[in-house]
Structures are given as C-alpha cells and as structure tokens.
Amino acid sequence: MAFARVNGIVLHYELRGPEERPVLVFSNSLGTDFRIWNKVAALLEDDFRLVLYDKRGHGLSEASPQPYAMADHVNDLVALLDHLSIAQAVIIGVSVGGMIAQGVAAARPGLVQALVLSNTAHKIGTAEMWNGRIKAVNEQGIASIAGTILQRWFTPAYCKPENPDYVGYHSMLTRQSADGYAGTCAALRDADLTDAAKALTVPVLCIAGDQDGSTPPDLVRELASLISGARLEIIENAGHLPCIEQPERTAGLIRSFLNQAGIG
Ligand SMILES: O=C(O)CCC(=O)CC(=O)O
C-alpha cells in the first residue's frame, strides 16, 4: 500500500513483482478499486512488474469535487508513472480504465508499449444515460443504482445474494465516493476516443465478455475494428468484469498476447 500526491491529488497504488521485469499497469472500472485485479495479478506477478492504482475518486485515492474530465484521469496516470520513474509500460484497462489507457497512449505515446483494452470502447453510453446516472447518485446515493449495475457487471449465475463474492463487490461499489463515481460518469459522458483509437500503432488486445451488459461484445468489436492489427478475444461466461469472473482466462490471454508482442 503506497500513496503519492501527483497532478494535485493523492493516489493510492501498489507495486508488485520483480523490479527488472516489463511493467504492466492496471486501471480499474467505474465504481471499483484495484482489488478487482487481484486474481489476475496473482497469476502474473512472478513474471512482470505490476502497478495497480485507484483512479481519482475511487478506492483509497482522493476524490476531488465532481465533475471530472477523462483528461484528469489520463493526466493522473501519466503523472503517477512519471513519479514512479516508469519510462515504458503495458497499460491494461477495464471499461473506463480502458478509456484511460487509450488516452494515455494519445497523450504520451512513448510511454505505452502495448495496450490491453478489456470491456471498453472508444465511446461508452449516451449523454442522457450518464446524466440520469449522475442525477440518481447525487440525489439518492450509489446504493440506489447498485443492484442494476451489478447485473451488468456479472453473469446471472454469479449475481446471487448467496454468493459472498457478489455481496463483497456490492459493498465495494456502494462504498465508493459519490463525487468520484458521479465525477467519472461525467468524464465518460464527455469522452470520445475514436480518433485516439484510430491513431494507435502499438500492439493491442481487445477483450470482451460474452454476457457484458455495459460494453457488449459488438461494441468491443467496433473498437477493435478502429485499431490497426488489434486482436479481439471474447471470454465466455463473463460479464463486464472478466478479471473477476474469469481471472485465469483473462491472465492467459494477457500472457499469450504479451508473448506474441515480444514482451516478457
Ligand atoms: O464500468 C465502467 O467503467 C463504465 C461502464 C459502465 O457504465 C459499467 C456499469 O454499468 O457500471
């Protein structure tokens, strides 16, 4: 557990794995903290240097007042990597974390060796949808929308109150800062990374979950079609967060992609 003040905000992060190995940076989704990557990280940490961090307004990182711009999240990650003296990294992002990854590649191309874009897109949702979510969170709290959100995060088989993991992730979501959650909804509402995706020249792996209700496979396929040479993999029996529901498959795809790209 470590903290750094970068870009005017205190971020929570953790470093794992051998220092001399290629660096993998993990960026999490809306309403979660970096523990969503724990099972994937455990499968990779013997062979890679891992950076896990909580984005602004999530987990133990500081929450500035809403709204946020995607550039805030992008600049935070670039500043954290600079703070850690990391010159090159593979950025692995899920959902809004995948948009942050695309943004970092556009803002600081030299920093990015390859990208893994899991359950994400160049543009997610509509202004109407995000404004509705912001209003609900600000007026009634995250708990008021949590049940609906978890149905998109996980498959029906996982989404059961008798599953302790489901209950745990419900707690993770409802305990996020309202400013952090709604602020990041505003960032998602205003972000269109179509041009950034089209300009990517690094190796890219796109991952979709066959039962993802937030960024369905067709949307991830559309993202992959914008990126020259991108590889697309669809994980079965997974919703929006295959890193939680299918960690072995997710880590296996990351490992084989890095191997193919000559990293590691
Ligand atoms: O998960 C994200 O980072 C944004 C996409 C989304 O809205 C997922 C959800 O339904 O919470």
TrEMBL record:
<dbReference type="InterPro" id="IPR000073">
    <property type="entry name" value="AB_hydrolase_1"/>
</dbReference>
<dbReference type="GO" id="GO:0016020">
    <property type="term" value="C:membrane"/>
</dbReference>
<dbReference type="InterPro" id="IPR050266">
    <property type="entry name" value="AB_hydrolase_sf"/>
</dbReference>
<dbReference type="GO" id="GO:0042952">
    <property type="term" value="P:beta-ketoadipate pathway"/>
</dbReference>
<dbReference type="Pfam" id="PF00561">
    <property type="entry name" value="Abhydrolase_1"/>
</dbReference>
<dbReference type="InterPro" id="IPR026968">
    <property type="entry name" value="PcaD/CatD"/>
</dbReference>
<dbReference type="GO" id="GO:0047570">
    <property type="term" value="F:3-oxoadipate enol-lactonase activity"/>
</dbReference>
<protein>
    <submittedName>
        <fullName>3-oxoadipate enol-lactonase</fullName>
        <ecNumber>3.1.1.24</ecNumber>
    </submittedName>
</protein>
<dbReference type="GO" id="GO:0047372">
    <property type="term" value="F:monoacylglycerol lipase activity"/>
</dbReference>
<feature type="domain" description="AB hydrolase-1">
    <location>
        <begin position="22"/>
        <end position="247"/>
    </location>
</feature>
<keyword id="KW-0378">Hydrolase</keyword>
<dbReference type="GO" id="GO:0046464">
    <property type="term" value="P:acylglycerol catabolic process"/>
</dbReference>
<dbReference type="InterPro" id="IPR029058">
    <property type="entry name" value="AB_hydrolase_fold"/>
</dbReference>
